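Justification of computing resources. Each target in the renewal requires a structure prediction run like the one illustrated here; the chain below, 423 residues long, is used simply to show the kind of job we budget for.
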Amino acid sequence: MIQVTSMSSFQTRVSLALALAVALLAATWPTNVLAADAAPAQPAQVPHKYASHDYKETAEAMLKEVRLVIPEGLTTVRGILVVTNGAGGDTRHWYTGAWYSEFLHLHDFAFLGAKGFTSHVESLQVMQHALAQIAKDTGHPELVNVPYVTTGFSAGGGFASRLLVEVPDRVIACVPVSSRLNFTGTTPSPANLATPACIISGELEKGLPAMVEPVLEAYRPKGALFAWMTVQGGGHTKSDQDILAIAFLDACVRLRYPADADVRQGPVKLKTLDPATGWIADNTTWKTGLTTIAPAGQFKGAIEKSSWLPSEDIAFVYRAYATYDRPLTIAAPVDAWNSRHTYDPGSAITIKVDDSKFLGWKKLEFYDGARKLGQITQSPAQFTATDLTPGFHAFSVLGTDAAGKLRPSNPTLVVVRKLPAAQ
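Resulting structure tokens:
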């Protein structure tokens, strides 16, 4: 059974009333992340508008539902952010979160969410059928050619892995959360190994290391662009993993999407990244107080126990996130993955640090990715980043104690939106 529904005038406004937002999200979004910190007050923003296109098909004896969302006024879709559901979940509305919605506008991408998907190839076939049908219905024939970036939680992470395994030439980058890269029964091709992927799991997901570590040990020495990290104290739940996931995907689009590519003429030939141009993290150092990162050519550790990262910026975010027992905590800004909050270009943001577990510090250095914003040598533990440009900004802090030892904070992610053309 196949059903197709298009709503060309559908739009979602960022300024939806809180009661409506909670009612919509509570059924499928984890309750531990619904209560995001209140966003700072700022001038009213003109909301983005979208066209939404639905597709339904029965496969694996279950109804699979797809929603493709295209920013209003986008004449050519350059790619798709694919985020499919975990078991029993529904991600068709997740594009309303600021990190996902701004990703679309920054890169001229569409969003694909789903309900009823599994990690199996049948779900991939349904996605392909949906894109072919929607391409015909909407006057966007390029949808059958576009490349993907993909992430997802649990079974959604399994589907992200499925895309990398089955259609690596179409995948810019992949971030499975609480899942793995599943090459069972197959030998990874050069295209598989050349697709950047970062697995994020929880420390308490005890079964995952036994599935992840063998993949890294087998294929990192062969040049695989794979990474892995565990969230200290994390279990099988979605929380703030998108801080790294979205930053990773954003960096890979900028590195791999050719500036002169025309998706209307056929599939995009993505750039192949040279492993030597990336950065590497030592997975054995997560619990040493500061995760070791280095340019690929300077890495001295065991390559089979390492993570490949596409840039120095992402290496700094990874280090802040992967390090255990961080004594510094960024108390503000704190935007959740499902927040509707964005900043306008030119905004100033004050980064406030809880240093109560790092008393006697001598210096705090504030970073946006790998770019040092500034430093302080006395309280209060805060610094204001100014004149922010459109895009994702991943803030972290490096503290120096009385003995000269460096310790990190957690990372936090904010997004400065790309203003609609009308503004």
